[in-house]
Automatic annotation (TrEMBL):
Record-linked InterPro entries: Metalloenz_LuxS/M16, MPP/UQCRC_Complex, Pept_M16_N, Peptidase_M16_C
Signal peptide limits: 1-22
Peptidase M16 N-terminal domain boundaries: 51-173, 529-649
Annotated Peptidase M16 C-terminal domain residues: 208-384, 680-853
Recorded GO MF terms: metal ion binding
Protein name, per record: Peptidase M16
Cross-referenced PROSITE patterns: PROKAR_LIPOPROTEIN
Pfam families: Peptidase_M16, Peptidase_M16_C
Source organism of this protein record: Aurantibacter aestuarii
Signal recorded as keyword: yes
Length: 945
């Protein structure tokens, strides 16, 4: 049986900050409910699988999300990380699909796929063109119910290496990566389901056996322990039949006993320190135990987090950032899970700041909050922002699928978002103070001081050393070598249906959405796409220039200006401007790139005109606040210092500097360096500001708004009159570093970050599309040869990709990956061989694969408002025709094998490339010399050693 429900996704009665101030609550709510709804049908198969269907025919795509009600909270000590590991195993093979199909075939169908594991659940999800809809049900259901017999020892050992590489990349090789482990060990008692991290420990993972895999699957992967959501361009009746066919025979599985909430209470405060090998800045966290998800107090706690630190009027921000200048920002937030919750204070302080002073400042800010209480205007602002976020959260079919599947599985009602909105809107100032007093005031906490190595004097006084298991970097790789291995031998599970691969449906080619164009009197060219799925508008003003408009020796001017212009106007303080934007439920921001300066934002359609009035004020009436300038300059210095801890940033920035040199903007990070930003003063920002001209700017807009309404709202920008200034020309240096490997030492790194490539071509080059197509086979996502070889075949990495930059300047072709330290040389040899033989090995098979993959991926590439803005930016920046995507499709269809070989040989000659390796010198430096390249050692700033 099933029931049909219309769920109005509305944020109830947030009236004080909108144009509906004079209407009654019932009138406004009724009006809003007619604007947007999600319709769904829910039914349950005989095996207990709950299925939710949602129809959205705005794009010819379908999203599928399968949520298994099992996360790391179902594990036990000694077998931690297993839910996440099993997610990885599930993406390998299954009985009725080809080997490697899940990771390889879905991208080749034009789809995207992934999975995720949390404390409480494991989710698998895909978005595919509608012609592959039945294929995705086939592959999804086979992974769900028919994978266990295919698991071999070789597959088990290979996936262990992949997950270990993921942990090394995200935890071991990352600044502050161990903090979560420290907190969990000390916040939750031993044996509590949250006392270990989701990714678990490497020794536990290494000890996993085939029997463990089978036991876990049989216990938790029954149909009755899952929810399935299908959203998109579907027919309800036909989809029900297909779901029953493909999923109906999956065993129900044993009953999984529900876990009851298990909140914790601390008897004493716990203060711990850790010397971090990668961190460059001291960081303090304080964590208080709170309540589980869906608990009514969780809504007030979330609002409390924003009130304490989420605005320029917030007490913690005032004390820590503005008054005492201890850090560039502070965050406080509630994080509730199925069994318990945590309220977190997090401060990454400025360089050399004593964390004792940060702790004193937090106490001072909290005392101020207690004395002043909750400001009602702040409460209204937060609720207005929540209304906009509600719509953003369901603006794509995949996001809707996520929302429906999680609320169905954990609260038993896919429509719970409506109730959640009501609970949030009902929160009062008294509720906020109540939860503050109940969960934070004078309550016990876990506190961590993570400091750079050798700077223990910055840790909290009397903190105790945290216990963390750290993997030893071993040079010997033999005991970690893995391979595809032999395929499993088994008898297929009987089925009433033919479970072989179904055929494609009708091919849905991409159709360019209808564009409209206009122009303001001051020269701003306007281009838009009307899309009425949700009552939102997203916009972008692109002004050519970016880094090209700033002095090289003061790189970072435009980035710093983009921050300063958002710090108030002539008539509004920084806090007043932030409040005005928030009360509209809007967002406005600025950022700079190598080639452009951007003013961006989004809002509810009903608030677009008021939002544009604020944009005008921001552009035309800058405050030039010296206090804010000093704060931002310090924050920028802190950020630049912090990225010195990031091996991936070190690799990328040195890669760009080596190719473009220090006399070209592309050779310097867009936010500058400590040296270049040290030379910047306020006058430099004012000079750059005068170069922001409307005459060569483009206003891009997408959303629930038409041409006339848009032009009326943005006509206020006609007062913007800055004249056009010439953009500097910079010469790309001679490429004299080819066939050279540059090594940068990060002692004790558990992985090596690899960047390999060369300068290729500009997006305006007639070969740009062709080279982009040619890259798909070698490095385009999980179906690419790099990923398939280095991760799937060898288990050396968590991911490996290649790409071509998209700029007017000559852009790079880049191969990038992070591999386990003792597989550095082997990975380099594989990549070198792959690049050297790419053109020769390219065949008609690759031509057809590329054509199929790219054509079908277009159907989902421009679904979101952000993606539509991106398409408009591409049209205006590179002067492309409105139907350039259709022309691009035709170019792809007409490419021959010789076209591919020619473009690969022309732009991707391996001997013209440079290699950048960031890793542990002690174990890897001598090995990488065996690659046969000229080897030069650099420090993290690119200086020869």
């Amino acid at each position: 049986m099933y029931k049909k429900i219309s769920t109005a996704l509305v944020f109830l009665a947030i009236l004080s900050c909108t144009n509906n101030q004079n209407k009654t609550m019932s009138e406004t709510t009724a009006e809003t409910e007619t604007e947007f709804k999600i319709d769904y049908e829910k039914f349950t198969l005989d095996n207990g699988l709950e299925v939710i269907l949602h129809v959205d025919k705005s794009d010819p795509i379908v999203a599928v999300a399968t949520l298994m009600h099992v996360g790391s909270n179902r594990e036990e000590p000694g077998k931690t990380g297993f839910a996440h590991f099993f997610e990885h195993m599930s993406f390998n093979d299954s009985e009725n699909t080809p080997v490697g199909a899940n990771r390889k075939m879905i991208p080749e169908w034009g789809g995207s796929r992934n999975g995720g594991t949390s404390n409480d659940y494991t989710v698998y999800y895909e978005v595919v063109p509608k012609d592959a809809f039945e294929k995705i049900l086939w592959i999804d259901s086979d992974r769900f119910g028919y994978m266990l017999n295919t698991v071999t020892e070789a597959a088990l050992e290979r996936e262990k290496q992949v997950v270990k590489n993921e942990k090394r990349q995200r935890v071991d090789n990352a600044a502050y990566g161990y903090t979560d482990e420290i907190i969990r060990k000390n916040l939750y008692p031993e044996g509590h389901p949250y006392s270990w991290t989701v990714i678990g420990s490497l020794p536990d993972l290494q000890a996993a056996t085939l029997e463990d895999v089978k036991t876990f699957y049989k216990q938790y992967y029954g149909a009755s322990n899952a929810s399935l959501v299908i959203a998109g361009d579907i027919d309800i009746a036909e989809t029900k039949k297909l779901v029953k066919k493909w999923f109906g025979e999956i065993p129900s599985g044993p009953a999984v006993k529900p876990l009851n909430p298990k909140p914790v209470t601390l008897i004493n405060n716990k203060s711990l320190y850790f010397e971090d090998n990668f961190a460059k800045l001291p960081e303090l966290r304080m964590v208080y135990p709170t309540v589980e998800n869906y608990h009514k107090d969780s809504y007030a706690l979330s609002i409390l987090g924003q009130l304490l630190s989420g605005s320029k009027k917030a007490p913690l921000y005032n004390v820590i950032v503005e008054e005492e200048k201890l850090a560039p920002n502070i965050s406080s937030y509630n994080n509730s899970s199925e069994l318990a919750g945590e309220f977190v204070f997090r401060v990454r302080a400025n360089e050399n700041v004593d964390l004792d002073s940060v702790k004193v400042a937090i106490n001072k800010g909290l005392e101020r909050f207690e004395n002043n209480g909750v400001n009602e205007k702040d409460l209204k602002r937060i609720k207005a922002e929540q209304e906009t976020n509600l719509y953003r959260g369901v603006s794509t079919v995949l996001n809707k699928a996520f929302q429906l599947v999680q609320d169905n599985e954990f609260i038993g009602e896919p429509s719970y978002i409506t109730q959640k909105a009501k609970f949030t809107n009902d929160v009062t100032a008294e509720d906020v103070m109540r939860v503050y007093n109940k969960y934070l005031k004078n309550k016990k906490y876990v506190m961590t001081s993570v400091v750079p190595k050798g700077q223990l004097d910055l840790a909290i006084t009397d903190a105790k050393e945290a216990s963390v298991w750290i993997e030893e970097v071993k040079k010997d790789v033999a005991n970690e070598e893995v391979s595809q291995g032999e395929e499993a031998v088994y008898e297929k599970t009987p089925s009433k249906f033919d479970r072989s691969e179904p055929d494609f449906g009708e091919l849905p080619l991409f159709n360019t959405p209808e564009l409209w164009k206009g122009q303001l009197d001051n020269g701003i060219k306007v281009v838009g796409i009307e899309n009425n799925e949700v009552p939102l508008v997203q916009f972008d003003i692109t002004i050519p220039g970016g880094q090209f408009m700033e002095p090289l020796d003061k790189s970072g001017v435009s980035s710093l200006l983009s921050d300063l212009l958002m710090q108030g106007t002539k008539t509004k303080s920084p806090a007043d401007l932030e409040e005005a934007i928030g009360l509209l439920g809007a967002s406005i921001g600025m950022y700079t790139t190598n080639e452009d300066f951007h003013i961006t934002g989004s809002c509810l359609t009903k608030n677009f005109k008021e939002t544009m009035a604020l944009v005008k004020e921001i552009i035309l009436e800058p405050r030039w606040d010296e206090k804010e300038y000093s704060r931002l300059k310090l924050a920028l210095e802190t950020s630049i210092k912090g990225r010195e801890a990031n091996p991936s940033f070190i690799a990328a920035s040195n890669f760009n500097t080596l190719l473009y040199g220090t006399n070209h903007p592309f050779g310097i990070p867009s936010s500058g360096t400590l040296e270049t930003t040290g030379r910047i003063n306020m006058e430099d920002l004012k000079t750059y500001y005068t170069q922001l001209s409307p005459k060569n700017a483009h206003f891009h807009v997408a959303g629930a708004i038409g041409k006339s309404q848009t032009l009326d709202a943005i006509s206020v920008l006609n007062d913007w009159k800055n004249p056009v200034k010439d953009i500097q020309n910079f010469k790309v240096p001679e490429q004299d570093k080819a066939n050279t490997l540059y090594f940068i030492d990060v002692p004790d790194a558990k992985q090596s970050v690899l960047y390999i490539g060369k300068l290729a071509l500009s997006e305006t080059n007639e070969d740009a599309n062709k080279l982009g197509f040619a890259n798909e086979i070698i490095g385009g996502g999980s179906s690419g040869q790099l990923f398939q070889t280095l991760r799937i075949g060898k288990g050396y990495t968590y991911g490996a990709y290649s790409s071509i930059g998209t700029t007017k300047e000559v852009a790079t072709f880049t191969v990038r990956t992070s591999v386990r330290a003792n597989a550095t040389l082997k990975s380099l040899e594989i990549i070198k061989d792959m690049l050297s033989n790419y053109a020769e090995n390219f065949s008609d098979t690759e031509v057809e694969l590329t054509k199929n993959k790219v054509l079908k991926s277009q159907t989902r590439a421009y679904e979101s408002l952000g993606a539509k803005i991106g398409m408009l930016q591409e049209i205006t920046k590179y002067n492309k025709p409105d139907d350039f995507l259709v022309k691009k499709q035709n170019e792809l269809v007409n490419m021959s094998l010789s076209d591919y070989k020619n473009v690969i040989n022309k732009y991707l000659n391996e001997k013209d490339m440079i290699y950048v390796v960031v890793g542990d010198k002690a174990t890897q430096f001598e090995d990488i010399k065996k690659l046969g390249k000229n080897v030069i050692e650099l420090d993290i700033f690119g200086n020869k050693k």
